[in-house]
Design a protein that fits this description.
The chain is of the alpha/beta class. Helix content is 35%, strand content 9%.
Length: 268
């Protein structure tokens, strides 16, 4: 793939090298090229081994599935004004279906809430070809491979960061708001936004459910609203730490900040 437009583009590193993400992400001219490079990445040996092991040892309920077992790209339109940043694909969710937050309980909770505020065409997400559409929203993550125990290491987060930085940079002309789902997402998002050209305050703002920070406009970009929410993990939703109404409230505020309205003309 020639991403430079020249006759002799530089040769990317092998997809298993830790320089692969920064090299390829920084040269991607659009989300299509970015996603194409991302899905070939093998830069984190532990994550590669785990995602492929999970695919080889499927749950009984998914024995008939051909697992995606690759890095999972973001999902949503290229002109999204709202980004939602999670943690990483679930082993038997996104790692199986090949789409963020698709095929697991966290995704069911998230997409039902997005549908409730008019930002998704349906309240469920089961597979890549289920017809789900997002309205002005891009869903992504700071780590694109399923990690063991849903816990990426700091090194894996940092190796994967160029993909998120590039994705945010491509979305930048129209991006107005970002929702970080969980403390890990919040802590990974802010440095990525700084690397993508926004002015991030120091010390970094503290995460909390309902937290909100405005990043001032820079380089002709609009101000960017950052909102925090607890992650819709089963641990949080089963215990009531995060209720459906709590998530809907954050998403409704984010939709307002992003200037979004659903097909019926209202985000509420």
């Amino acid at each position: 793939m020639d991403v430079t437009g020249g006759a002799d583009p530089p040769t990317p590193p092998n997809s298993g090298e830790d320089t692969y993400p920064s090299f390829c992400a920084g040269r991607s001219r659009g989300l299509g090229e970015l996603d194409a490079y991302l899905t070939q990445c093998r830069a984190c040996p532990r994550l590669v081994a785990w995602r492929e092991q999970v695919a080889a040892n499927r749950r009984p309920a998914f024995q008939d599935w051909e697992y995606w077992a690759r890095p999972v790209p973001g999902f949503g339109p290229p002109d999204a004004s709202l980004a939602i940043v999670g943690l990483a694909p679930a082993a038997h969710g996104g790692n199986r279906t090949g789409r963020m937050f698709t095929g697991d309980a966290s995704g069911d909770f998230l997409f039902a809430a997005l549908h409730a505020v008019g930002l998704a065409s349906r309240p469920t997400a089961t597979h890549r070809d289920d017809g789900l559409e997002l309205y002005g929203v891009r869903v992504t993550a700071p780590v694109h491979c399923a990690p063991p125990q849903n816990r990426p290491t700091p090194g894996e987060r940092d190796t994967c960061r160029p993909w998120l930085t590039a994705e945010l940079g491509i979305l930048a002309p129209g991006l107005r708001a970002v929702v970080a789902l969980g403390a890990f997402s919040w802590q990974a998002l802010l440095p990525a936004l700084g690397a993508a050209g926004w002015r991030v305050p120091r010390p970094l703002p503290v995460f909390g459910h309902g937290a909100r920070v405005t990043l001032p406009a820079a380089d002709g970009r609009p101000d960017l609203e950052i909102l925090g929410s607890y992650h819709p993990s089963q641990r949080n939703t089963f215990t009531g730490r995060l209720t459906f109404d709590m998530l809907v409230e954050v998403l409704d505020r984010a939709a307002e900040a992003a200037g979004l309205r659903g097909p019926e003309g209202s985000s509420g």
